[in-house]
């Protein structure tokens, strides 16, 4: 990304198949209509302008980069096998194994013992054998969810579908939102994991003392309001935040969270970070 700024606007540029394209953002000192935030500079890590620029770049180059499956069942498999405690590459490898079975004989994934066999067998990650954590727990969740999915109203609006998915075994609001975001390209839900929470707290858009366990919908509403305020798709923004926050060094994150800890300028030349689950 490249940027230029003057008193009224700042412009960011990204490379597309047609060449360089640009987008104008408000000046760094202009306020958003949310929480008294100012836009900040597009090269200032963690600022509203930074997130607007990063999300816009991904929307230009890979608008559906987060979609994993070719069906709702496949998105359910991918999202149930990923998430907390599972490295992205391990979750993807397990997903590919189960997706192949689902393509050939989907009824086999209704059998918990068979799913356990698939997950318990070591996964090959570029010649390195690794074991999938929580194989027994996830096999029960996945087989039960695949059975229950058959009775869901697949035509329900995004939020209603998300809420219905939370009734499936092992599927909470975050996983259900992840499935709906991926499958529907939905901007009506948000995947609130630790990376999104950290970014939101740095921005101070999330109220103090609120947790995803008790206040998911309230935090989600704050995130969606922020996405609207910076004029980016929520579905792109939470994916981009997740990718960026995973790769920003911990020392920088600590300083962003507490700027008074030591003298530090978070300005840096941002890079477009790699795609992942």
Structure description:
The protein has two domains: 2-63 and 193-261, no CATH class; 72-157, no CATH class. Helices cover 49% and strands 9% of the residues. The protein contains eleven helices and five strands; from the N terminus they run βββααααββααααααα. A three-stranded antiparallel sheet has the order 1-2-3, with helices on one face. A two-stranded antiparallel ribbon has the order 4-5. 36% of the residues are buried.
SSE diagram, text form:
Layout: E1 2-5, E2 9-16, E3 19-26, H1 48-61, H2 72-81, H3 88-104, H4 112-120, E4 123-125, E5 128-130, H5 135-149, H6 158-165, H7 173-184, H8 194-203, H9 212-229, H10 234-247, H11 250-257
Antiparallel strand pairs: 1-2, 2-3, 4-5
Give the strand order, joined by hyphens, for the main sheet. 1-2-3
Low-confidence stretches: 263-277
> Mean pLDDT score, rounded?
87
The total domain count is: 2
Q: Give the overall form.
A: elongated
What is the terminal-to-terminal distance?
Answer: 23 Å
Tally the beta strands.
5
Binned strand content: 5-15%
The largest pleated sheet is described as: 3 strands, antiparallel
**Which series of helices and strands comes N to C?**
EEEHHHHEEHHHHHHH
The amount of helix comes to 40-55%
The number of helical segments is 11
């Amino acid at each position: 990304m490249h940027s230029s700024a003057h008193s009224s606007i700042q412009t960011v540029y990204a490379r597309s198949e047609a060449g360089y394209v640009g987008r104008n953002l408000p000046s760094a000192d202009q306020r958003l209509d949310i929480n008294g935030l100012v836009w900040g500079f597009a090269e200032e890590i963690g600022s509203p302008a930074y997130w607007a620029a990063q999300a816009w770049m991904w929307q230009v180059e890979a608008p559906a980069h987060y979609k994993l499956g070719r069906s709702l069942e496949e998105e359910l498999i991918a999202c149930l096998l990923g998430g907390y405690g599972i490295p992205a590459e391990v979750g993807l490898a397990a997903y590919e194994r189960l997706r192949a079975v689902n393509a050939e004989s989907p009824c086999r994934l209704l059998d918990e013992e068979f799913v356990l066999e698939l997950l318990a067998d070591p996964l090959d990650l570029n010649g390195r054998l690794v074991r999938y954590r929580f194989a027994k727990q996830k096999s029960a969740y996945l087989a039960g969810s695949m059975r229950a999915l058959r009775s869901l109203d697949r035509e329900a609006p995004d939020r209603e579908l998300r809420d219905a998915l939370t009734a499936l075994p092992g599927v909470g609001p975050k996983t259900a939102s992840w499935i709906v975001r991926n499958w529907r390209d939905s901007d009506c839900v948000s995947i609130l994991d630790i990376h999104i929470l950290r970014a939101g707290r740095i921005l101070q858009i999330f109220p103090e003392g609120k947790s995803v366990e008790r206040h998911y919908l309230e935090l989600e509403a704050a995130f969606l309001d922020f996405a609207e305020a910076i004029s980016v798709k929520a579905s792109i923004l939470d994916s981009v935040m997740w990718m960026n926050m995973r790769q920003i060094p911990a020392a920088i994150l600590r300083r962003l969270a507490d700027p008074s800890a030591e003298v530090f300028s978070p300005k840096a030349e941002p890079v477009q970070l790699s795609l992942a689950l």
